[in-house]
Design brief:
553 residues, alpha/beta, Gyrase A, domain 2, Rossmann fold, four-stranded antiparallel beta sheet, 19 helices, globular, RNA-binding
Length: 553
RNA sequence: GCGCCCAUGGCUCAGCUGGAUAGAGCGUCGGACUACGAAUCCGAAGGUCGAAGGUUCGAAUCCUUCUGGGCGUACCA
């Protein structure tokens, strides 16, 4: 509907220009929006006010001319008013609304999709926690956010790949191996003092047990080779656990990319040489520095330490070059907010690689406070005190967990209350939306029992759907595709929960006021069609969120 | 110290990239089931949008300063 009104306005402005009623100036993008106030019409535009400054004329006078020149050939407008400082308010004829539902019917499951992505290849990298311990609640939020961003982009016509970068090289991993080794020695009855900087979590001890059970004291003597084996063993095992945890959340990756792969054939050092050749790297003693300040970073960064080992940053440069060389035109990284200090150096790296700064987009996801009944649950990864994803999904369920993560803008902090998330009451917004869907299914079942199957658009009389609640529903349903589009452009998943919450709310109001199945068969058919369309939109939206749309609950 | 993020009814948060009288949910108070599912609906109270300036027809939204909170500021990842 918006597009139709925008076309009308464009047409009018064009003919105003022809007739010399408007000066040839920059014509702004025309915006049409929902007025808050019902008396301001169904839609409103502020073009006249925007044009006012460049035309050097009063907005209301411009508006008058635009309104006079609107050619409503399809007869969709009931009336047009000029109001306030120069708003143009549109009132749509009540019988044209239901026409909007036709496309829901023809598109079905695909209603809401678009092709704004034009097949552009985009990679979304998220979670990417190093396999030194189980995922915690903060990772879960990042996982779900990244997953849904990917889904939204997919629905918008991008060709999307979900990727997890495994930091399985470097001294954190070494530390992991050592941690297991010491616990292993303890099991053999050796009296060792467990180092402070090692991982304290119980899972380390469990791994040590596992190894002791299957290998006995095999690794007791040769410390070096033992640690290297244990590192790999532990990383594998932990990574598998991570994958399983992610699966319980409904997050599936297209690819797990190992950092180790970057070091094959001296990959990392070759890239550093390239960059050195381009003059982005200088040497100071044994250390190599990357001149990230050339690109606006606040200080230069080390890429090779004086002991000759490359830093994590060095590998990350190589990784990002690898991404672009695989043909991704857009690269999106979803990071925990604690990594924000990393952004400017990564942008510098991307530019040094000959890419534009915008070729790397970073979505920051703020940290999560885990609560139980409003009381913070203490968390410390190092000390091994945390609630894992599996415990969370096990306790509150996948749907509630995902929905709770998605309700907030990723940029704001999130309180995740375990008790609240699992209460099956009105305090929990997931059920509100799911209930609407279940209710719709239930009505359709009832109608089917009475021999009235859900009709298609061509079988109904759309002009019967004129009640205010019906019109509100249709309006909202009509907005769904543009909402998805906006959410894709802004990389903001939270718009979807807000939208379906609204939709469910309008539906519930409608339901309480009007009977769908009645003895008026024409009206019954029209309303069945309306709620079928509503159900389709809820289902499509929930599918994007990775949340189920139950038919009963 | 410096950098990034946040600040909106009692609580948790939206506010569509500058629009008309700032919106939801929870909580509080008052109503609605012999009607398709009451996990629902209807109504009410509750706000100088952290503070002060500035930009313009118009600011919760943009710019500056300040206050308060989170995070970061490694040759860790």
């Amino acid at each position: 509907m918006k597009e139709r009104l925008i076309k009308l306005l464009e047409g009018s402005i064009d003919s105003c220009l022809e007739k010399g009623l408007l000066k040839e100036t920059d014509i702004p993008f025309i915006e049409v929006e929902f007025p808050r106030e019902g008396s301001h019409g169904d839609y409103a535009s502020n073009v006249a006010m925007i044009l006012a400054s460049s035309q050097r004329e009063a907005p209301r006078r411009i508006a008058e001319r635009i309104v006079e020149n609107i050619n409503d050939s399809d007869q969709i407008l009931d009336k047009i008013e000029i109001a306030g400082p120069g708003f143009i308010n549109f009132f749509i004829k009540s019988n044209v609304w239901a026409v909007l539902l036709k496309k829901v019917d023809t598109l079905g499951d695909r209603y809401g999709e678009s092709d704004i992505g034009k097949g552009i290849r985009v990679q979304v990298e998220f979670v990417s926690a190093n396999p030194t311990g189980p995922l915690h609640i903060g990772h879960a939020r990042g996982a779900v956010t990244g997953d849904v961003i990917a889904s939204i982009l997919q629905a918008s016509g991008f060709s999307v790949s979900r990727e997890y970068y495994i930091n399985d090289a470097g001294n954190q991993m070494n530390l992991l191996g050592k941690s297991v080794y010491y616990r292993y020695l303890e099991l053999m009855g050796e009296d060792i003092s467990f180092p402070d900087n090692c991982y304290q979590g119980r899972y380390i001890t469990e791994l040590a047990h596992e190894i002791h059970d299957s290998f006995g004291d095999k690794f007791r003597s040769d410390k070096e080779s033992a640690i290297s084996f244990l590192t790999e063993y532990a990383a594998d095992s932990i990574l598998n656990g991570i994958k399983e945890d992610l699966e319980t959340l409904g997050v599936i990756f297209d690819r797990y990319f190992s950092e180790k792969e970057l070091y094959k054939n001296d990959g990392v050092t070759r890239i550093l040489q390239d960059l050195q050749g381009k003059g982005f790297i200088y040497k100071e003693g044994n250390t190599l520095w990357f001149k990230t300040t050339d690109f606006g970073d606040e200080k230069d960064r080390v890429v090779v330490r004086d002991n000759g080992e490359p830093t994590y940053f060095a590998a990350d440069i190589a990784y990002h070059r690898n991404k672009y060389s695989r043909g991704f035109d857009r690269v999106i990284n979803v990071w925990g907010a604690d990594h924000h200090g990393y952004i400017s150096r990564m942008h510098a790296a991307v530019q040094a690689l000959g890419r534009k700064r915008e070729d790397l987009e970073i979505v920051l996801v703020q940290l999560v406070n885990l609560l139980r009944n409003g009381i913070p649950v203490p968390m410390s990864t190092r000390a091994g005190e945390f609630v894992t994803i599996r415990e969370v999904t096990g306790e509150v369920g996948k749907d509630a967990a995902r929905y709770n993560f998605l309700m907030r803008r990723s940029n704001s902090h999130l309180d995740f209350d375990l008790e609240l998330a699992k209460t099956q009451s009105s305090e929990n917004p997931v059920y509100y939306v799911q209930y609407a869907h279940a209710r719709i299914s239930s009505i359709m079942r009832l109608a089917a029992e009475q021999g009235c199957r859900a009709p298609c658009y061509d079988e109904i009389r759309p002009d019967l759907l004129t009640a205010p609640e019906e019109r509100e529903l249709i309006k909202l349903i009509d907005t769904f595709p543009e909402m998805i589009e906006g959410s894709a452009k802004a990389l903001e998943p939270h718009r979807i929960p807000y939208y379906i919450n609204d939709l469910a709310s309008v539906f519930h109001s409608f339901y309480n006021k009007h009977k769908v199945v009645s003895d008026n068969s024409e009206l019954t058919k029209a309303r069945l069609f309306l709620i079928k369309s509503t159900g389709t939109v809820i289902r499509n939206a929930l599918r994007l969120l990775g949340v189920s749309a139950p038919e009963r609950m």
